[in-house]
Design a protein that fits this description.
Length: 415
């Protein structure tokens, strides 16, 4: 009997945010357990809603959404994105250099498919948002990871990045504000990274999907403004800032000297045309999202739900015997670290599984973000603050149990 075997391209592709632990959580739910899921940055699952005026814009244009649209997206929506990008200082952004997709996810794949030859290298952060690694591998590329260590505030080290560059390096990926760490990069750091891209003729790929989710006065610096004429593809969308993950609307905008990217732009257009167009219906929400008064500040400033959730996490970690945390400045996550002193060895997957089995809490282990031997785990800041405090009580129970067993192995303890 001939088996239907999957492509060998998938051998190194992983997405553990929805992987084995999540499947186990579903089994436990089917058995009747109430699982607190902190694994996905999906605002709609935690009681957040998209602003009413976005919904209204879609409803009033339903009838105009029945035909295929332009492969790069609705012209009006692309104009609004170009206006936003130019206002942020991006150079040479025109509607022909904007692409709307079914979420940033689709565009990450298209951007790398249009760029890479087999064996080309892409500089990716470690930890990364793992779709960037997966899309690099699926498109024949090789990830080269630069560290964003907790000891450095989860900021990249420009010297380390430059040392990783080879003649095969094609692109430098930044995620800012960062998922999973919450780091927000200062302008001086971005200037150093742009200088590296300029010296080595790299394409800058800047995932800015959390651009307006900022805490405690953190400032977001768009990369395209710093990049000037250096080719830069900036990604944004409705999923996070506008709490509309299910609409599946993202965009990418190409800035920098057009002469250097004409052929690349045409390749992006070809790939966009091959999939005909993005979902038209939800694209009507782009103009109000970008042109009406912002709505995210009410959630991220003191008293706002995300601000208070983050406070609950910071206070819980401060009170913990086992954890520390680089304070997240932006995005929807915290990336706490289990401190080493109580554990000779620490297996983040074993910890996450135990937390799920014993305490019904689902987190994502740090190794899922392409950090070998990680002592970290990621949680979202989306649940209500009181629930997050409860989660940390449970985490503390598991870690204290593990620390006790480390001093006195389980079978001895039970004897
Ligand atoms: C850094 C980052 N980029 C891209 C995405 C995908 O977003 P979209 O919903 O637009 O596909 C996510 C989703 O969590 C993300 O965290």
């Amino acid at each position: 009997m001939a088996l239907i075997t999957p492509s060998a391209h998938l051998a190194d592709v992983r997405y553990e945010i929805r992987g084995a632990l999540t499947r186990r959580a579903r089994e436990l739910e089917a058995e009747g357990l109430d699982i607190i899921k902190l694994n996905i940055g999906n605002p709609g699952r935690y009681g957040f809603t998209a602003p009413e005026h976005l919904r209204g814009a879609i409803a009033s244009h339903l009838q105009e959404s029945e035909a295929y649209g332009h492969e790069q997206g609705l012209e009006l929506a692309r104009e609004a994105i170009a206006t936003q990008q130019r206002a942020r200082g991006a150079r040479h952004v025109e509607v022909e250099r904007i692409f709307i997709g079914n979420g940033v996810s689709e565009l990450i794949d298209i951007s790398l498919r249009a760029l890479l030859q087999p064996g080309d290298e892409v500089l990716l952060p470690s930890p990364d948002y793992p779709l960037w690694s997966a899309a690099t591998i699926l498109n024949g590329g090789q990830p080269r990871y630069y560290r964003c260590a907790a000891s450095q505030g989860h900021h990249p080290d420009p010297d380390e990045i430059e040392a990783l560059i080879t003649p095969r390096t094609r692109a430098l990926v930044l995620i800012n504000p960062n998922n999973p760490t919450g780091a927000v990069y200062p302008r001086e750091l971005l200037q150093q990274l742009v200088a590296i891209a300029a010296r080595h003729q790299l394409l800058l790929l800047s995932d800015e999907i959390y651009d307006e989710i900022l805490y405690d006065g953190a400032t977001f610096q768009p990369l395209a403004e710093v990049a000037g004429d250096v080719p830069c593809l900036t990604f944004g969308g409705l999923s996070k800032v506008h709490r509309a993950c299910g609409y599946r609307v993202g965009w990418m905008s190409l800035s920098g000297a057009p002469i250097r990217t004409t052929a690349y732009r045409d390749a992006l257009q070809l790939l966009a045309a091959l999939r005909l167009c993005a979902n038209v219906t939800a694209q009507w929400a782009v103009v109000p999202a970008l042109q009406d008064a912002p709505t995210i500040g009410a959630l991220t400033t003191p008293g706002g739900r995300l601000h208070e959730a983050r406070r609950a996490v910071l206070e819980s970690v401060a009170a913990s015997d086992h954890l520390d945390l680089v304070t997240p400045q932006g995005a929807l996550y915290a990336f706490p670290r289990v401190r080493g002193e109580h554990f000779a060895t620490f297996d983040d997957n074993a910890f996450a599984l135990r937390l799920l089995e014993e305490e019904s809490v689902l987190v994502v282990p740090g190794t899922s973000f392409n950090v070998p031997g990680s002592h970290h785990f990621r949680i979202t800041l989306l649940p209500p603050p009181a629930q997050l405090r409860e989660v940390f009580t449970r985490i503390e129970r598991v870690l204290s149990g593990m620390a006790r067993e480390e001093r006195q192995p389980r079978n001895v303890a039970m004897a």
